Amino acid sequence: MGVDQPQVPEHSVGGRVSCDGERATVRYVGLVPPTAGLWLGVEWDDPERGKHDGSHGGVRYFTCRHPTGGSFVRPAKVSSGVDYLTAVQQVYEFETEKVLSEEISISSRKLKWGRMKDRGFESLLSALLGNCEVNGPGADGEIRKTTPQVQWLDMSGSLLSCWEDVSSITRQLDDLEGLTLVNNRLRLPADVSAHCQAFCSLKVLVLSGCDLTWPQILECAPMWPQLEDLCVDKNNITELQRPEAALQSLKSLSVSCNPLVQRSVLSLAALPRLEHLNLSETGLSDIRFDDTAPGSQTAMFPSLTKLNVKDNNITEWCVVDELGKLPSLSHFLCNGNQLVSSDGNPKTVNQLLIAKLGKLVVLNNSEVHLNERRGAEIDYIKMFGAEWLKAGGASQTSTQFTEQHPWYQRLIDKYGAPEEGELKKPEPFALKNQLLKITFVFPDDADRKPIVKKVLASMVVQKVKGLLYRLLKVPAADLKLTYSSPKMSGTEFEIDSDLKTLQFYAIEDGDQVLVRWS
Q1: Shared-domain flag, residues 177 and 291
Q2: What is the value of pTM for the model shown?
């Protein structure tokens, strides 16, 4: 009985395979003496999965970037995946009789999608094929016939090996706006211009975990002429280069979880429409806009409204002062940095951030209310008032003070110079026990005289309403409170939470609380 001769497998060098849930790229197909039969030499996406660097028995069969990134496996042990249409059938064939209605998220966008009963795949708006091991398009032209309306496509964790494979699918989806390719390994195209039509409607692209460098992304960028939202988290991005004639329509960019070279972040200022930038977990510790003096607006990032620098190494307040130069910054996330105030109070840190970033409306996902801003800015004036006077005050503020507090003069212009009595620093914990002289007035009851009371700054609004109930015999639930300050004549600030303190609302000695009821 003869020995079966090994047959050449369908796998080719550069192809993608999976084995036991792990994906790899084929680097070698052939014999590995002294064993019989064919082997595949693979480089795993996860280098911890491998055993060597492509060498065996003193012979090098292939190379790996990681010393333990490679293995030899039998062809029968691996999967080469399935084509797009087979994956669609596997995912959706049992749902053809149902009305589907779901909400999915791709990058920062959400989409409602559905498919009408008994209409098959023709009305499918989203093809969610993540980890379905898609390896190509299938029969030529069949995608356009079978799923012509797909707008959002997820092929994360596929077995596509190059951008030509992706293009062969997307060019049949004329309405495609969103594409997710998380955890893929795609060779760059030989001719980028040949694939522009395949992505002509694409607006959202997610390439997280694809082991890409920034130059590789810029090389591919001409393929995506209409792209508005790009996510390249968890890649191999270090130094950012200026996008020359590329990504000019981009509005949102996330480069989170990449070890960025600090100064190269300014290269992104060449994106004129960029509104949202995510720099979280990039090791960022400093950023400087040297095109303008302290306290002035930079010409860089003219459209940037949302900035995320969470979980970085920012320790110096001068970095926040630099971010204050951004002309449109309104949403800011900075949790997980080492910014501290002199009193060690996290609430004071938030106050400083609000005071230094004058256009902020959302800080760490919390809305900045008008009265909160007023309190933060007035406290900032008081906190550094003594230094301001020592530095020359209104007559001639020193350059050193201006560099350390570039936005102080803006606050002086808004509220006026601090009074001498306000410059005394309170003893530790004295502020929460401070007595405030408050005048309660009743604008809707002309016959009722104002009532003057001394109350603790730490008193919650609920207890203030209890005090008013005893005085007015009006149920606390019916009371509506606002307050005004002599420093902001004619302006009323809403007191909208019973569980907040007077101190939270920045109510000061001598202010008026206006009491109304239904």
Answers
A1: yes
A2: 0.78
Domain of residue 72 covers 16-77
Q: Residue 245's pLDDT is what?
A: 86
Element (H, E) at 410: helix 408-415
Who contacts 408 (Cβ-Cβ below 8 Å, separation ≥6)? Answer: 380, 381, 384, 388, 397, 401, 402
Residue labelled with tokens 């002289």: 437
Please give the pLDDT value at position 75.
94
Taking alpha carbons only, the member of 289, 296, 297 closest to residue 268 is 289
Residue 8 tokens, joined: 């050449």
Q: How far apart are CA 26 and CA 74, in angstroms?
A: 12
Strands 276-278 and 451-456, bridge-based pairing: unpaired
Residues of the chain short of pLDDT 50, as ranges, are 1-9, 96-101, 112-118, 424, 426-432
pLDDT given at position 2: 35
**Helix (H) / strand (E) containing 409:** helix 408-415
Q: Which two tokens stand for residue 96?
A: 């053809």
Q: What's the token pair of residue 440?
A: 């309660």
Q: Say which residue the tokens 């299938």 belong to.
A: 138
- Specify the pLDDT at position 503: 84
68 & 132 share domain: no
Q: Is residue 99 part of a domain?
A: no
User: Reading across the β-sheet that carries 366-367, which strands appear in turn?
Assistant: 126-128, 152-154, 178-180, 204-206, 229-231, 252-254, 276-278, 306-308, 331-333, 362-363, 366-367
Please work out, in degrees rounded to the nearest 5, the angle formed at the alpha carbon of residue 213 by the alpha carbons of 207 and 217: 60
